[in-house]
Amino acid sequence: MARHHEGLDTTTEDIMAGKASIVFAHGLWADGSCFSKLIPALQAEGHEVSASQHGLDSLAGDVACVTRSIEHVPGPVVLVGHSYGGTLITKAGTHDRVGALVYIAALAPDEGETSQEQLDRFPQTPVFDHIDVADGRIWLLESGIGDFCGDLPPAEQKLVLATGAVPVPDLFAQQVPGTAWRTKPSWYIVANNDRTVPPDLERSSAERIGAKTYAVDSSHVPMLSHPDLVLDVIRDAAKTLET
């Protein structure tokens, strides 16, 4: 059901007419602010934007949170997932309002395959030497932030570390049904210098899902280190849904 926007002048309504909405899904050790370099530009271009703020408490709960964001905005929706957020858009993206999927250095498990099973097919990356399991969560240590987002300025790295949500230990072993990339057009951004999700996994995922693929010499967070490229990919996906 489309939502009505009260108080908008005619010019703004005209700009928004026919525009796809954008819903973001973050990964581990992140929150919705990891898309802060993308959201203002997309809003200025007339897109309605929502960033899911899920708590990494359970896969089912995180998918439900992304689904709420999908249902909060008008369709059609471009669903954008970073890292573990790729698992979330793979599951939540079966929603009939979703028309396109954008994966950013992301997981994209097949039906019946967990996030961990997808990761296990590739050598472990350096970031996992810098984690601590405490208080029922997996914490990224300060010593590992360079492996997560080492191409950001030091102040931005500290901000990423301070704002990141922390997952329950068995999150990647959990399963819910849904494989949206089997029926929805997909775009994929491969981070060539990723030390968190293996770049070989990213390339393999992009090929398996038949995605329109872009590669960038980036750490695990191209939306922060190369936002212009990521914006162009999202715009490309959105164009296919707009009237």
Automatic annotation (TrEMBL):
User: AB hydrolase-1 domain location, by residue?
Assistant: 22-232
A Pfam cross-reference name: Abhydrolase_6
The portions of this protein that span the membrane are: none
**Coiled coil residues, start to end:** none
- PANTHER family documented for this protein: AB HYDROLASE-1 DOMAIN-CONTAINING PROTEIN-RELATED, ESTERASE_LIPASE_THIOESTERASE DOMAIN-CONTAINING PROTEIN
The protein here is known as: Pimeloyl-ACP methyl ester carboxylesterase
